[in-house]
Amino acid sequence: MLKRIAARVLARRKADPAAATSRARGGFVQSSLAGHSALGLGLGALIYIVCLSGAVAVFADDLSRWEWAGTPETAALAPEVVDQALAAGLARASAQAGGAEKVTGLYGLLPRPDWPHLAVRAYTPAGAVTWRAGADGALADTPSDAWTDFIGEVHMELSLPGVWAGLAVGTVGIALLSLLFSGILAHPRIFRDAFALRLTGARRLGLADLHNRLSVWGLPFHIAITVTGALFALASLMILTVAQVGYKGDLARAYAPLSGAQVAPDAAPQPLPPIALLQAQVADPTPGAARVSRFYYVERPGTKGQRILLDMSRHDGLTQGDRNYFDGEGKLLAPLGFLDGPVGMRVYGASLALHCATYGGLAVRLVYGVLGLALSIVTATGFSIFLARRRDRGRPLPRLERAWAGVTWGVPLAATVSAAFTLVPDLAREAVYLRSFWGLVATLPLLSLAAPTGERASRTLRLLLGGALVLLAGAHAACHGTDLPVAALVIDLVLALAGLGFALSTGLVGRRARTLAAQVTPAP
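RESULT FIELD:
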């Protein structure tokens, strides 16, 4: 009996090898599609948050100028003014923390043409405190946390502590990379149909075309960003493994290539060395190759055992800028080697620049912003396609449709609401940003369950997002009045136009939905 069945199966395969090949290929495609959907279901929301916050974080310098529009801009400050501001920040932090020994780090974000501000940040056991400095080096009366820093932390750490941040974001990066490749395998015609876009007709087909086209057009960018992001996020876990395997658990030796030259701790008092002394030792003598200092960081500031890091960048290629280390007296120890060091360090520095878009200026940031938004749309529409496919097959998931609408439009709405607190000095704190953003991210999908349909939840949240963006832009412009810098005014205009677009899209979608309903529903 079994022999006869096996013989008939074998005879059919011999008679129609093309059909057998087609079945095998179809099974492989279906398996790839099943794996692709499973990954998207499990991590869709986290992937979307990481992608969207990354697209915003690319413009951190530009958004910081918008956020600090009330502080006069200056593209360069005399070294003596910078020294005065850093010393003032150290003194204030020491007084607040109860002693200079309680200040573990001092950070200065230095002015440059594309970010014309000076910020001083001190690290104490109670947390970080940041002050803005004016053109005269005087610090603001009250500290203020940067909202753009918070959004960057959402992207890099998902606001999680310690090693959990790297594990979570690294997992998201690996899942996204898997989705990119499984999506290509699951759609054999994806490159052949690279320019097919059906925006009319069935909703699922339009979403699928948008999803596939954006995936193909931005594929090199998506892969580069995903690979470098996953590696950086998992770096701490990889170093822990290297320390256990190669250095018998000695983390210091494992971190040595990335931590730079060390200085022995010494609590004896020592003034901060002049920044001009540091810059003179790392100036590039080559004509036309001037380097720009981006930031300055001191470990154990105000002591003889302080170690100073001065970042110096140049604009002649794919580079993140080098990290130069000095001892407590300001003597150059060694650069980290991102610019001119070993090949491995230069590749690492270039990978940082490639991921963070710190090369090429505004034009590169704009390209990254567009492609980052495209990747965010790809992640959002991927889950929407799954839900639409279920509905077309007669197995809808209405609650999940409404909740996903709350994720898709709730994340940008939460970011907009948290940004509004930058206009209220007493509320411009990281804790407020954290609670407002993650509180809304968690709450809005639950509130969306009260909507009758996922489409209604989507329209409502888009209307709220559009109104919030317009109000934010208007309130920001009104708050700063005629003192508003051109860069900040441009951002206000972009926010207002985006808000109007979202608000108008609700009417367009509503009319289209009613038109389709009228076409398929017979008149009474």
